[in-house]
Write the C-alpha cells for this entry.
Amino acid sequence: MIRIVTRARLARLEDAARTASEQVRQTSGAANEAFGRHVRELWNVTDRAERVEAATAEVGVLLSGALAELSDAQQEMLRKDIEIRWLREELSRGPVEGETVTVLMHHGEPHAVYASREDAHADTATHGYPADHVWTPCDERPAAAFTWRCEAFTYNPATNGFHRANRSIPRAPGGAA
C-alpha cells in the first residue's frame, strides 16, 4: 500500500512530534525532580533512622547500666534489711548476764562503746594510734592519765547494769593492804 503524504499532513506530524518531544522533555524533567526529591527524602529518612538507631543503642547502654545499679542497690537494701532485723532482734533480747562490752576512753572520757576489745583497738588506729600497737594492762593511774584506754564492762542482771570487769584493788593509806 502506498500512502501519499501532503505538506499539511507532514506539518501536522512535525508539529505533533515537537509537541510530543516537548511533553517528553517536561515529563522527563518532572520525573528527574521527583526522583531527586525521593532520593533526598530517602537520604533524610535513612539519616534519621541511623540517628534513632544510635540513640537506641546509647539508651540501651544507659538502661543496662541503670539496671545493674538498681540490682546492686536492691542487694544492698536487702543486706541492710537483714542487718536491721538482726539488730532489732538483738536489741529486743536485751543484755545477757556476763555479756561484755568494751568502752574506749580518750583521756579518761568515754569515746565509744564496742562489742569487742579488737573493735576498740581498731578504732584507735583510725585516730592516729599505730595499728600494731601492743596493748598492755593499765596500772593504777587514773584513766585521765592515758591517751587511749580500753575498759571492759560486764552485764550484771542483779543490778541491771554494766560494771567494770577489772576492778582495781584500792590500796590502804600508808602502803598496808
